Amino acid sequence: MDFILLGPPGAGKGTQAKLMVDKWNIPQISTGDILRAAVREGTTLGVEAKGFMDRGALVPDRVVIGIIAERLTEEDAVNGFILDGFPRTIPQAEALQQILDGLNRAIDHVISIEVEDEELVTRLTGRRMCKECGESFHVVFNPSSSEGTCDRCSGELYQRDDDKEETIRQRLAVYSEQTQPLIAHYEEQGRLRRIPGTGSIENIFSRVLEAAGN
Ligand code: ADP
Ligand code: ADP
Ligand code: ZN
To answer: Which residue in 26, 156, 208, 210 has a CA-CA distance of 20 to 30 Å to 41?
Structure first.
């Protein structure tokens, strides 16, 4: 099962990906998580990516394509993967196609999670993320049971630097310009399933299962 989760920042891709990991025992591959880890560790990759991320811009295609090319050949991805936050541009989608051709595999399902902009701003300004496992919480909509601590791994929760309103609006604009065209791209290939991203997390997960033919 090879999945792509598409959708604007705050649509719930990460939240749904975690449930999919538990269901199918395949890894979530989030370019955002990989880049944030690199920034934290101060690697060359992190130093290059940080400026783009802080202003809500996309990191250059060649950088993220390199990350994915390497990550998809790791052993835990042999039975499937959930791409969360990649691809985000047409060149990234084309590069992914080439990488997968080379591995003799193909994307099974592209699931596009749809939520309106104002709801996205409310979600992202209240988001708290786990430093250790990347799980997302929300101060109102999905609070952790003990404030500041991750329910999944007991890691510390924090507010991302780019989850402030000005940067959020910039990221939403970048999404409509650069990532939205992927919806038509995958629709033409007949692989796209759109699901409404509002309602309870469990409800949305049942739509994900249905979209995946379960
Ligand atoms: P993405 O990975 O698409 O950026 P996240 O999964 O991090 O999105 O979710 C963004 C924010 O919205 C988080 O604070 C999360 O707890 C919250 N959230 C996720 N799903 C829902 C939902 N169905 N209803 C309300 N809030 C949600
Ligand atoms: P969200 O789902 O909230 O938009 P992500 O964690 O997926 O956030 O991404 C955070 C930031 O990391 C993006 O704003 C961008 O700067 C960078 N990034 C992540 N994935 C990609 C990608 N596929 N291409 C380019 N930049 C990316
Ligand atoms: Zn955690």
So the answer is: 26
Q: What would the pLDDT profile of 159-172 be if each residue is shown by its tens digit? A: 999 999 999 999 99
Range of the domain at 83: 2-26+79-211
Residue 118 within a domain: yes
22-54 in b/e burial notation, b at 16+ Cβ within 10 A?
eebebbbbbbbbbbbebbeeeeebbeebbeebe
The CATH number linked to 98 is 3.40.50.300
Is 160 assigned a catalytic role? yes
Q: Looking at residue 160, what is its pLDDT?
A: 95
Q: What's the pLDDT band for 214 if we cut at 50, 70, 90?
A: confident
Name the average pLDDT for the chain. 97
What is the CA(90)–ligand 2 centre distance, in A? 15
CA of 165 to the centre of ligand 1 (A): 16
Question: Cβ < 6 Å from ligand 1: which residues?
Answer: 7, 9-15, 123, 126-127, 136-138, 141-142, 200-201, 204
In a domain, 31, yes or no: no
Tally the domains of the chain. Answer: 1
Question: Which tens digit of pLDDT belongs to each residue from 14-40?
Answer: 999 999 999 999 999 999 999 999 999
Does 185 map to a domain? yes
Q: Is position 67 within any domain?
A: no
Flag whether pLDDT at 47 surpasses 90: yes
